[in-house]
Structures are given as C-alpha cells and as structure tokens.
Amino acid sequence: MLRRLAALAISVFLASPLAMAQTPVTIRIGAFPNITHPQAMVGKANGEFEKTMGPGVKIDWKTFNAGPAAIEALFAGAIDMTYIGPNPTITGYVRSNGEALRVIAGAASGGAALIVRNDAGIQKPGDFHGKKIASPQLGNTQDVALRSWLRANGLKSTDKGGDVQVIPLANPDQLTLFLKKQLDAAWAPEPWATRLIREGNGRLFLDERTLWPNQQFVCANLIVSTKFLKDHPDLVKNWLRAHVELTEWINGHLPAAKKILNQQIQKETGKALPDAVLDEAFGRVQVTYDPLRYSLLSAAKSAYDAGFLGRQMPDLSGLYDLSLLNLVLSEKGKKAIQ
Prior knowledge:
CATH class of the largest domain: Alpha Beta
CATH topology of the largest domain: D-Maltodextrin-Binding Protein, domain 2
Oligomer: single chain
Strand content: 15-25%
Distance between the termini: 63 Å
CATH superfamily of the largest domain: Periplasmic binding protein-like II
Number of strands: 11
Low-confidence stretches: none
Number of helices: 15
C-alpha cells in the first residue's frame, strides 16, 4: 500500500506545474556568421541569451549561410526563430500565404553598396551602359536594389531589353573577377563591399543608405514561426528582451562589440576579418531593433516591379507582430515601434 501511495505521489508531482516548469525547453535559433547579425554573434559569444532566458531553456543555435536555407528550415520545423534578410523574409511569407512567419524585431540597417572597379571607366550612371554588374543572387535583396536603381536611372538589364549585364554571382567570385578585370561593378553586402574596395581595386560609387530616408533600410530582421509565437510567447518575449539589451550594449560599446563579433565570426568560419575591413564595413551598418517596416515594404514593391513576386502584389499587412517587442520597450521606458 505504501509503495502504491508513493508511486501515486510521484506521478502527481510529475504532472504538477512545478515539475513541468523544471523540464528544459529547447529554442532553436538560426543566424549567419556575419556582421549584419550582430546581436546573434555577440549574444552567442557572451552568453547574454542564456542569462536572460534562464536555466530552464536550452538554446540550440543553427548556422546558415543563405536566407533561403533558413526559410526552408523554418518551414520544416527545424528552427523556431532566425535572423535573416528582408528578401527571404518576404518570399517565405508569400510562399506560405502569410501563415509561416512573423517579423518581431529588426536587427541591422544599411550594409550594402555599389562598388565599381577603378579602371572600368565608370564616373556617372550613364557610364554603366554595356557594363557587367554582379549581384549575390538572382532576386536577392541586393539584386532587387540594383535592378531598381538601374530603372530609376534610365538603364535596363539585358533580360529587360537593355544593355547592362546583371550577373548573379557569389561574393567571393565577385572579388576574383574584379581582380581579373572581368567584372565592372557589383552591388554587394558588407563586408564584401569593403573587400572589393580594399582587395579588388574597387571604389565606392554608391552607398545604398543615401537612397533611403534617414539613411536607414533594413538588412536583417528577427523572424519567428507563427506556431512558436503562439505556443511560447513568454520565451519569445524573453528573447526580445535580450535582443534589445544586446542592441543597446553594442551601440554603447562599439570597440568591444566589434572585437567580440569578429572573434565569433572566426570561431564559426575559421577566419576573422582584418581590423581595417571590419571597421570600414561596420561603419556602414547600424545596429537596431527597429525593423524599419517602410523599407521592407518598399523593397517588396521593387521586387514585384522586377518580376520576382508573381503577377499580383502580395498583401504583406500581416507580416509584422511587434506587440512583444513593444511590451519589452514599454517595460524599459522606451518609445514603441509603430
């Protein structure tokens, strides 16, 4: 009888809220080892996320090198949240008919530029006639920005009946072709834009920030699967608290933050950025928790105009859920994000 009562007591305890609270919860987070995911890199290195989330939460980091792969992982249920660029965010939302994901915060602004080869004979927009310009990937964020800029300056790519050859090309290959003088220009993200300047005989022709209000445009967001957001709003809120605190710490301690970030990049990729490259590249990036909604919606319109989002402009009205971010900001006495 005593044994039966003891077994019953144990089973009741295991079913109790206390026991369930002690069961570790795993949160799976995606991030890229680059300077446009600064909160993820610094937070991974200094343990800030573990500290904020508490001992009852295990963080399982997943490393990605491209946005589409992170979106596929989110679709497959392999990750719960990820730091990611605006174009794959839009694509993932549209592909899932608005069901798979929500943007819950910004991560970084800026960090892209049009670089021309010094001896390519390019001084003004009209000089791009007949030239070869690279973008990292067909339809990616920089590719869309490049095509939009060409249209705004009366230029057309060859696939649209013009004479400017737009070549989707991985960033390392862009540098190789710059050195071989087989490429005239590239619209590149950081730190590759800086590397094209410092290593590829390149010159800054256009900092993309100059095309945007207040020189701000989103280059990285934090997104979450809608299912995880619904099931674990408390965990998402705690993550956002750490994200906001990391944003503030990085902006207030830039020298130390860049050092930590570079050490984490070296840990994940095997190679740190030279200090001069890191300083120049990071100088074109702003760390922010504001998702800069207007810039993503504008980029979506440009992607649609370029033929990348189907026959009808998609409805993106449900893409953002900033309620938990604004709760965190309110608790800290900060202004809400509209």
